[in-house]
Amino acid sequence: MSTLSGMLTRISDTLWRKPNLLILLLILPPALWLGIIYLGSLFALLAQSFFSIDEFSGVIKYELTLKTYGELFRPSNFDIIVRTVVMAIAVTIGAAIIGFPVAYFAARYARGKWKALFYLGVMMPLWSSYLVKVYSWKLILAKEGILNWMFETLRLGWLLDAYLSIPIIGGNSLSVSATGTFLVFLYVWLPFMILPIQASLERVPHTMLEASGDLGARPYQTFRHVLLPLALPGVIAGSIFTFSLTLGDYIIPQIVGSSRRFIGQAVYAYQGTAGNIPLAAAFAVVPIILMALYLWIAKRQGAFDAL
Amino acid sequence: MKNVLKSSVAILMGLSFAGQAMAQTMVTEIGEGEGQVNIVAWPGYLERGETSEAFDWITSFEEATSCVVNVKTANTSDEMVALMNEGGFDLVTASGDASLRMVAGKRVQPINIDLIPSWSTVDDRLKNAPWHYVDDTHYGVPYMWGPNVLMYSTEVFPEAPTSWDVVFKAMDLPDGKPNQGRVQAYDGPIHIADAANYLMFHNPELGITSPYELNEDQYAAALDLLREQRKIVSRYWHDAFIQIDDFKNEGMAASGTWPFQVGLLQGDGTPVASTIPQEGATGWSDSTMMHAEADNPNCSYMWMEHTLSSNLQSDLSVWFGANPAVLAACTDGRGMQTAEGCTANGLDDFDRIKFWTTPVSTCESQETCVPYYRWVSDYIGVIGGR
Amino acid sequence: MTSAIRLSGVSRHYGAVKAVDNIDLDIAEGEFFAMLGPSGSGKTTTLRLIAGFERPTVGEIQIYGEVAQGIPPYKRPVNTVFQDYALFPHLNVRDNVAYGLMVAGVAKYARHKSADDALEMVALGAYGNRSPSELSGGQRQRVALARALVNKPKALLLDEPLGALDLKLREQMQEELKALQRSLGITFVFVTHDQGEALSMADRVAVFNEGRIVQIGTPEDIYYRPESPFVADFVGSSNVLPPRFVAPLIGRQVYGSLRPEAVYLADQGHPAQVTSVSFLGTATRVSITVGDVAMTMLLPKGAAIPKAGDTVQVNWDDADLHLMAAP
């Protein structure tokens, strides 16, 4: 008993004398977890992308090669990347444009009960099942759905038809058009844009805006030169969410849209049905590279200076 | 004892002929039930009267064997393969495009048909079907089969279309409007086989003998046809219920589909009907297969026997609009199915149906065929407009 | 004397709270005008009404003869130095100062030149490339000043600009501000809760209490001739004498005020009890009670200092007893 307590005392004495040892002991388990489980699986994926698939047998050849990455630049595959990136950019910009005023209202004007209502309104879509939301949007956007009906009732059917006849973004109905996919993405990821912007706007002192106006800036100039730069970390944080979530999603374009594939679907199809793990891995690397590129550009543009 | 001897011989034969099967031991006798059996199945395949009271083929099994049936539904063949790779399941109702992958991946074990008394009642056309019978070894018990039919809106077509060209070629439909934007196609690479099947009938000079075994030229012709189809297809259907919704809400006129959707839509009063046009059709044929490391082999064998001998075959064929693996189920009154019902479901069209199977590069009918992984990437390209 | 800023019957109510209640104010051009009062007295709200950040509930505001209620802040010819300086953290010092010129469309070279000149004026010429976060409190204060002045406003509004500085810096800045105002000749409106600051810098002072102006006048007026016990107490730390104390002396029921330095020890006068004594360096403050009224007196250096508990005689000149008609 006494030796045990003596030992414990010795241990705590040692830890007290060497605080770095204590920090090391505390940080080791999460670091191992992150290192082995997370980075390990990531590198396993990366490694797969440097293998290739044998053209004849469909068997994976375990020799290092860049051939699989070359396949990404085949027109049909490159289309998928371009399509996904354009969609992710459009969704991000759309979400920022819609999300900013909502977040601004919540940060500046909403108080007490209204603030609670705001959080409820923004978060509620996150509580219900993702699939339920997407399916409901399919019904809303369908040819015989409510949106179409509204256009017809307002005698604006011709407007919708004209819009849908535009190639690429149009289609037979909204629910089978790229626009439909865009709208559903926009709806589903919007909370991820609003909340970070709102948090960053809360941190902008009110006097900054007054000072800007006082110095002669019109509201638009205040927005452009003060509010937006100061809220930019929030917009960037939100855009990281919306951009990466859109890059990776494979459910929405499957239910609403023109059936043209997105990166997530390509990964799913190649690793699942085709057994072409190397190409699936190479596709999975694309969003990682795009995000790294995006963050690098954002940093160069000074998006994180106000942090 | 006689069974043991027979299976030993079978094992020896497996060793000498198949080689790779030696790691997998076949069950040689059925012992006491383990109390449960875990099955991966297509939606609607395993019913215990909860969806509709009249359709129940589990309760009687559980009462008779005290093996509780646990069902995990899977929506695609890929999901099935993934679940079986994860493990923890005893049985799976695998289609032809999944079964060979699982056999090759050694995820399923050989079936000892001597332990299944009703094996003899199985439709002779299915007993040694290539999607479960590999290297003279049985890996599955036939479960159910059906055609991929052509569904059409009866408002658009006063009479059943006679050819698949309504979904492959741009044309005006009988209602005077073009078919563009009003037809659908299956969102799986296996749909290339439907195009090949169409070409097999209309372009005999290509020399296609099986839509799943295509050389480069035949394959290129099929893709060309699909590229033409892309221009008229509004959406490639992936999920049965999304397609049902599209026929209700999107004004669809025609599409390849499963009898399942036709039945549900007709049940809802939607004006649709289905047909197997002159070119014939592709189809699916599912088999119950057993996991290589099944924890409950005894209950599994009892279940496989039950699938053949009970009301299952008859009632399921009514429920799903499919055809039983046991011919007698159409006529002997064990369930609700009748001879007319089986005919309506396409029982007599067996020869006109090319069942799903995974395309591989070493094929029987040709020197080399285009393998499935290329079907996947090329079909993605076709849908993307390439 | 031209009127720079005129408020007529201006009120600002938030629901039942009257932040500013019926104020009349006339600030002359070139004047250094202080608004003094405890926190919550309405002085900052009045400043914000002039700047345009708040709109009056009723009343009229004129800036250089122009009715200002309908004019947004960015069109008013006034600039503000904020209590927290409100420097833009994402811009360097030069761009902060040049901000007003930038939004007015002045070309980059010209506005940077003006900004550097303005920084030179506040002795920060070498700091243009720094980030505001790299500056000390006093330096930020000067940047805020330069940023406002570079726009050549007709009036400069300062909201407690020295509040965040330490004593020594504050005294230094007081002088600099005063000198700056004199050399620029523009109107300064200065909000403070520090009466010393207000009295030492301003040409005129408005004392605020509970949303109203209780007295406007020169520092001397405010200090020597408070019109109410509140002003006497808040501004001069004068001894406020209740009517029952004053009445026997002069025969009228009014309040009186008596500055501490006007009270002296005498051979004959009012008997007083010494409660505490504190040494202030140049003088000594003695707290006493005369009858039941507490007072303080300031004894000059060299005077005899009583001890706590002593009973002494105190007196004052009648001329130093200031009477206040208002309650």
Notes on the protein architecture:
The complex is a heterotrimer of chains A (307), B (386) and C (327). With 307 residues, chain A is mostly helical. Helix content of chain A is 75%, strand content 1%. Chain A folds into 2 domains: 2-49, no CATH class; 67-300, MetI-like (MetI-like fold, Orthogonal Bundle). Chain A has a two-stranded antiparallel ribbon with strand order 1-2. Chain B folds into 2 domains: 2-145 and 284-346, Periplasmic binding protein-like II (D-Maltodextrin-Binding Protein, domain 2); 149-257 and 357-383, 3-Layer(aba) Sandwich (D-Maltodextrin-Binding Protein, domain 2), CATH 3.40.190. Chain B contains 14 helices and 15 strands. The longest helix of chain B has 17 residues, at 2-18. Chain B is globular. Chain C has 2 domains: 3-232, Rossmann fold, CATH 3.40.50; 238-324, OB fold (Dihydrolipoamide Acetyltransferase, E2P), CATH 2.40.50.140. Chain C has 10 helices and 17 strands. Chain C has helices at residues 43-51, 93-97, 99-103, 108-121, 137-149, 167-184, 195-201, 219-224, 229-236, 243-250, and strands at 3-14, 17-28, 32-36, 58-63, 66-67, 78-81, 155-159, 187-192, 204-209, 212-217, 239-241, 255-258, 264-279, 283-290, 293-300, 311-315, 322-324. Classes of the chains: A mainly alpha (307), B alpha/beta (386), C alpha+beta (327). The A-B interface holds A 53, 56-58, 74-77, 79-80, 83, 138-139, 142-145, 171-173, 175-176, 254-255, 257-261, 266, 269-270, 272-276, 279 and B 76-78, 81-82, 101, 180-182, 187-189, 233-236, 238-239, 242, 245-246, 248-251, 360-362, 368, 371-378, 380-381, 383-386.
In CATH, the architecture of the largest domain in chain B is 3-Layer(aba) Sandwich
Low-confidence runs of at least 5 consecutive residues of chain B = 1-23
CATH class of the largest domain in chain A: Mainly Alpha
Placed side by side, the strands forming the largest sheet of chain A appear as: 1-2
Straight-line N-to-C gap of chain B: 62 Å
Most extensive interface, chain pair and sizes: A-B, 38 and 43 residues
Radius of gyration of chain A: 25 Å
- DSSP helix count of chain A? 14
Q: Give a count of the beta strands of chain B, DSSP E runs of length 2 or more.
A: 15
Oligomer: heterotrimer
Helix content of chain B: 25-40%
Mean pLDDT of chain A: 86
Based on helices, strands and strand pairing, what is the structural class of chain A?
A: mainly alpha
What composes the largest sheet of chain B?
8 strands, mixed
In angstroms, what is the radius of gyration of chain B?
A: 21 Å
